[in-house]
Structures are given as structure tokens and as C-alpha cells.
Amino acid sequence: VVAAFQPKFMKGTKVLLTAGPTFERIDAVRGITNSSSGKMGFSIARAAAEAGAEVTLVAGPTPLVTPAGVRRIDVVSSKDMLAAVNAEVPKTDIFISVAAVADYYVLNPSEQKIKKDAHILTLELAPNPDILANVAGLAEPPFCVGFAAESENLLEYGEQKRRRKKLPLLVANQVQTAMGADDNEVYLLDDHGQHKLPRAAKLDIARAIIQHTAKLYREYHP
Ligand code: CTP
Ligand code: CA
């Protein structure tokens, strides 16, 4: 029987995902975040669980419902997400990084609500660590799948990101198409080249991503 036709083709495989945005605190009531519904990441978590994988989902703030059979860890900031991922990575076969992680955090967040006045408010932002690049750079990394959200030069920027972060697979999507929508259109970039998944519901795209990931994973870990 061909593997892809077996409904539980990921049985025994441990999959770790990040999804949704992160939120970086400015003060007691304000923060900086990214536009991310979490739908793509949650759909991939669901598709992996349907395929029989043991799935852990590290989720930033989102009202989405946890897919059946998925273990969920809620986080707020990028630093929380990094800590949760690092704790899980040693028991992970495949890491799929779908979260829209905030690239910067506020250097000195205020405990109290900052009062407004007529002046310009300056925030100091410092770069957050790249969670995916850290995991992919480990001596014995899990099989790493990255995402690239681009507003222009999708394939060129996507392939650059894949090489820079040393990823066997990267899913590139156009922010104008993907953001908040129920469907998506993506390119799979791997060592064999580019492969387009035409516009479809995010759950169908997610199932195709999981099939491709499982196939490549077996290629790398025969
Ligand atoms: N990522 C991450 N940790 C970060 C930033 C990004 O794990 N601090 C992951 C994302 O989950 C995604 C991939 O890296 O899988 C690419 O994210 P993206 O924002 O598209 O690219 P960046 O490398 O952050 O570059 P830029 O935002 O400048 O395009
Ligand atoms: Ca980024």
C-alpha cells in the first residue's frame, strides 16, 4: 500500500508547531503584535493529528479552538514562545514554525499605564531571537519546516530565507492572499525545487503540506 493512502501515515511521529501571533507588552494595557489569525497553523496541527502524529501546538494569543487530539501550550510573548519550544524540541521529530513571531520587543515596558500627552512617544525596540533559526541550527535538529510571509518577491525572498535558516522545507505565502483569509495559495520550496499548491481552503492546503512534509521527512530519515 502506498504510504500516502494510509490514513495514519504519521503514526508514532512527534510534531511540534508554533502558530498565531506573539504579543510584546508596551505597558499595562498596550502592546505590539502581528496580523495573524492562527488559522494556517491550527489547520496544519489538525492535519498532522488526523494523520496520526502526536501533536504539540505552541499558540500565541488567538480565539481559535484547539483541534481534536492536539496538546496545546498557550504563550503570549516571543520569549515565552522560545522557552516553550526549547522545552519541547528534545522530544520532537518534526518542527513546523507557522507563528508570526514579533521581530522586536519593547526594551523597558512600563508596569503602569503610560499617560498620554502632546509629545511624541518613543519606544525602544530590541530584536527578538529567531526561534526557528535557533532550532534548525542545533547539532541534531528535528526536521524543520519554516514559513515565509512576504509582500513582494515571494519566491526569491522565500528561497533566501530557506537557505539562511538551513531548512529542508519552506512554505512561502503572499501576505495579501493569506492574512486572515479562509483559503490560501502557497509555494513549497525544498532541495528539489518549487511546487505550487493552488488556491484552496486552508485545511486542504494544510493536508497537502503535511503529506509533503511526511514524504520529505522519510527521505531525510529513511
Ligand atoms: N520565525 C521565528 N522566530 C522569529 C521570527 C520568525 O521562529 N523571531 C519563523 C517564522 O515562524 C517563520 C520563519 O521564521 O517560520 C520566517 O518568518 P518571517 O517573519 O517570514 O521571516 P523573518 O526571518 O522574521 O524575516 P522578515 O520578517 O524580515 O521577512
Ligand atoms: Ca519576521
Automatic annotation (TrEMBL):
In the UniProt record, which is one GO cellular component term? phosphopantothenoylcysteine decarboxylase complex
Q: Which residues bind CTP?
A: 103, 113, 129-132, 147, 161, 165
Give its E.C. classification number. Answer: 4.1.1.36, 6.3.2.5
Pathway listed for it? Cofactor biosynthesis; coenzyme A biosynthesis; CoA from (R)-pantothenate: step 3/5; Cofactor biosynthesis; coenzyme A biosynthesis; CoA from (R)-pantothenate: step 2/5
Q: Which UniProt keywords apply?
A: Decarboxylase, Flavoprotein, FMN, Ligase, Lyase, Magnesium, Metal-binding, Multifunctional enzyme
Cofactor annotation: FMN; Mg(2+)
Q: Where is this region: Phosphopantothenate--cysteine ligase?
A: 15-222
Q: Which residue spans adopt a coiled-coil conformation according to this UniProt entry? A: none
Kindly list the GO molecular function terms attached to this UniProt entry: FMN binding; metal ion binding; phosphopantothenate--cysteine ligase activity; phosphopantothenoylcysteine decarboxylase activity
How the cofactor is bound: the record states: Binds 1 FMN per subunit.
- Source species, domain of life: Bacteria
The DNA/pantothenate metabolism flavoprotein C-terminal domain is annotated at 10-215
Name the reaction it catalyses. Answer: N-[(R)-4-phosphopantothenoyl]-L-cysteine + H(+) = (R)-4'-phosphopantetheine + CO2; (R)-4'-phosphopantothenate + L-cysteine + CTP = N-[(R)-4-phosphopantothenoyl]-L-cysteine + CMP + diphosphate + H(+)
One GO biological process from the UniProt record? Answer: pantothenate catabolic process
Q: Which family does it belong to?
A: In the C-terminal section; belongs to the PPC synthetase family. In the N-terminal section; belongs to the HFCD (homo-oligomeric flavin containing Cys decarboxylase) superfamily.
Per the entry, what this protein does is:
Catalyzes two steps in the biosynthesis of coenzyme A. In the first step cysteine is conjugated to 4'-phosphopantothenate to form 4-phosphopantothenoylcysteine, in the latter compound is decarboxylated to form 4'-phosphopantotheine.
Protein name as catalogued: Coenzyme A biosynthesis bifunctional protein CoaBC
Q: Which organism is it from?
A: Chitinimonas taiwanensis DSM 18899
- Tell me the stretch of the parent sequence this chain holds: 175 to 396 of 398
